[in-house]
Amino acid sequence: MKIKLGAKDCLIVVDVQNDFCPGGRLAVQKGDEIVPPVNALAKGFDNVVLTQDWHPPGHQSFATSHPGRKPFDSIRLAYGEQILWPDHCVQGSDGAALHKDLSIPHAQLVIRKGFHKEVDSYSAFLEADRKTRTGLEGYLDERGIERVFLCGLATDFCVAWTALDARKLKYDALVVEDACRAIDTQGSLAAAWERMTKAGVRRMQSGEIA
């Protein structure tokens, strides 16, 4: 059966930014391919939220902030294990900007995450310390949203973390697979889908929407 959208549904478009697209500092393979399907998908929603990674220079998640470390090393920080990344999505940079062809003029909210220098943030709801809230939950609750659809970059990191937190917060959560792309390093995509499936996140295609 086709899924009918209504006033209690919201599309969350995760991190469709230049640094996560080909040519960017932390590019997801074929990440730019999702822009047309995301634009088409968004037209069916009254409620759309965009997210942006928005790091200050010298962010703790950057390998350059830890002498002797290189990108994709893993270290222990106060809040737990942290993968170190190339400098990316630095506030105000072209890399942090949304992809130029992303066209969702009716989006009502942009959630910027990862702007606290000492804490990374994959989820659009909670930062990596699992305590600091972004405010997205309050916004959705005020709007009466009950079901969230997710798309964007990358499936196995920011999309998955956002979907998992959505379920913990009791929203119905659906990931639109053809409007996402993954990093898929060391089995991360399969592991993410396993966690999401166990949490009750639904895996779907954009063609399933009426």
Tell me what the structure shows.
The chain is α/β, with parallel strands linked by helices and 210 residues long. 20% of the residues lie in helices and 21% in strands. The strands form two sheets. It has a six-stranded parallel beta sheet with strand order 5-2-1-6-7-8. Strands 3-4 form a two-stranded antiparallel ribbon. Helix 4 (188-199) links the parallel strand 7 and strand 8. Helix 3 (155-168) runs parallel beside helix 4. It starts with 8 loop residues before the first strand and ends in a 6-residue tail after the last strand.
Draw up the topology in text:
Elements: E1 9-14, H1 35-42, E2 48-53, E3 74-77, E4 80-83, E5 109-113, H2 136-142, E6 147-153, H3 155-168, E7 172-181, H4 188-199, E8 202-204
Parallel strand pairs: 1-2, 1-6, 2-5, 6-7, 7-8
Antiparallel strand pairs: 3-4
Helix pairs in contact: 3-4
